[in-house]
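Entry 12.
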Amino acid sequence: MKKHLLLLVVFALTGAFSKSFCQPLPDENKFYSIVNKATNQILVLQKEFLPGIYPELSSKIQPPQSGTRIILQTWKFVKIGSSGFLYFIQMKGSDNTIDIPEATHNIGSHIILHKLNDADNQKFFMVSTGEPNTFYISSFSSGLVLDGTLSPQGTAHVNFIKQMGLNGSDNQKWIIEAFN
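Predicted 3D structure (tokens):
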């Protein structure tokens, strides 16, 4: 509970949100793409074998596919409870969701895709940036936000999404675009 109160204070002091702390998504029954504001690249998943018992998937930023968005770029925000601000971010056609591995609070840890298990490290606040359909995606368990900072090389193949402390940069802002 203390970390969530601290998160509210940090957002308030940094001016990271406009009139409201969180902004519900327009329609939880739609599918969305998640676009990094700084790079205009879409959050996708690539198959990666990570350390641990099970192979999992790791999130990367990739350039948009010309004309189409593949299923690995399509997400559903599953509302948790009645608040309208806390979500599981689930891949379309799957019971897998974005996950902070081992519920780590380490800055710079990469996010993964993991089978939905209702754990706190799979829950995310959608925090309004004050810009239309643009959010900070904040981990409920760590209080850190998702960050899509490009590597110094600028190649899309090495740009894992990680969790970082809020700094208000466009690398931490995510445009949520609904599919028709």
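Annotation: The chain is about 5% helix and 35% strand. The two ends are 38 Å apart (CA to CA).
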